[in-house]
Amino acid sequence: MKITFCCTDTKAEPWLTGLEAALPGAQVALWQPGAPPADHAVVWAPPQQFFDEQPQLKGIFNIGAGVDALMKLRLPPQATLVRLDDAGMSVQMAEYVCHAVIRHFREFDGYEADMRAGQWSYRKPRHRADFSVGVMGLGVLGERVARALQMFEFPVNGWSRSVKTIAGVRGFAGVAQFDDFLRATRVLVNLLPLTPDTQDVMNRETLSKLQPGGYVINVARGAHLVDDDLITLLDSGHLAGATLDVFRTEPLPAEHPFWTHPKISLTPHTSARTLREESIAQIAGKIMALECGDPVAGIVDPERGY
Ligand code: NDP
Ligand code: OXD
User: Distance between alpha carbon 5 and the CA centroid of its chain, in Å?
Assistant: First the structure.
């Protein structure tokens, strides 16, 4: 069995040796233009040329959860496209989002500034019941995040395409219930896949429906958010702040206003990192399952785009 590896911005060597160790007998090679045909591909944001030269692929394994970059390309129609299914990302996402929610709710930035100014002062405790958190996307990551937030007793809302029942989470589904979801939410967490339906979903109109003092946490993709609309609503005072991990252009361009906005906290697309060992083990298991005709978790539906 031949496996070709084509992952942008990824150190290839440890992946190649890890995949070879996990799939004894397989030949694993770094893709180069003109490389011989392979059975399966392990990819992250490959160029179109890669698929044009590998039209016979049986399986394409993305080393991330989001497949939006692949959905822009022409893929071999017979190939099964498989995304990472957690592989250690959901716990990271839960800790990132809980940290951001709690940091905002408990006003830790304010306390830090006070203490640095040599000021020992207290703020009035806020009511948890006033900080309902709405999670957009209740998939592998969103569900874990919603459950983690519940542990801190925040009221939690969830929005998905199809109806989801998660104990203790007030569920909303589809376009018809989106407004109700937004109006019931103060802190908005985005964990949607980027698709034509979800692009620009956080804009002036939708973010205006959040409860006053709203807060935005974007950990999915930059193109879900209309940057200028966020800034307008922060400056008008309708929104209290935002924590952003993902951006339309990454790295975030030096001149972008997000860098210096006092109400925005930034991280460099790091909320849930691909963990190499877990991912190699998962991908190797999926390649073997696909070869044997066994069920494989995390198959992408090209029609839905996720
Ligand atoms: P999943 O595919 O498991 O879940 C997607 C969820 O979004 C599902 O609940 C789905 O609904 C819902 N959804 C999709 N389209 C719509 C829509 N039009 N309206 C309402 N709900 C919709 O994805 P993951 O949880 O694994 O990952 C989510 C995203 O997180 C990834 O696509 C990626 O972009 C991002 N990500 C970011 C990382 C980072 O480091 N910042 C790391 C990893 C992922 P339904 O359940 O009905 O299908
Ligand atoms: C992913 C990511 O989609 O890291 O896995 O953004």
Answer: 23
Domains and CATH numbers, the chain: 2-87+274-292 (3.40.50.720), 90-266 (3.40.50.720)
What CA–CA distance (Å, rounded) separates 244 from 224? 11
Q: Which of 269, 273, 276, 304 is catalytic?
A: 269
What percentage of the chain carries pLDDT values higher than 70?
100
Quick one: CA dihedral 295, 296, 298, 300, positive or negative? negative
Ligand 2: which residue has its CA nearest to atom 3?
A: 66
Contact 160, 173 (CB under 8 A): yes
pLDDT tens digits for range 67-99: 999 999 999 999 999 999 999 999 999 999 999
- 103 annotated active-site: no
**CA 111 to ligand 2 centroid distance, Å:** 32
Residue from 40, 144, 186, 221 carrying the catalytic annotation: 221
> pLDDT tens across 157-184, in order?
999 999 999 999 999 999 999 999 999 9
Q: Is 269 a catalytic residue?
A: yes
- Extract long-range pairs of 299-305: CB within 8 Å, 24+ residues apart: 299/80, 299/81, 299/82, 300/62, 300/67, 300/70, 300/81, 300/82, 300/83, 302/71, 302/75, 302/81, 304/161, 304/195, 305/67, 305/68, 305/71, 305/193, 305/195, 305/196, 305/197
Task: Give the Cβ contact number of residue 78 at 10 Å.
Answer: 9
Joined tokens for residue 121: 């002062």
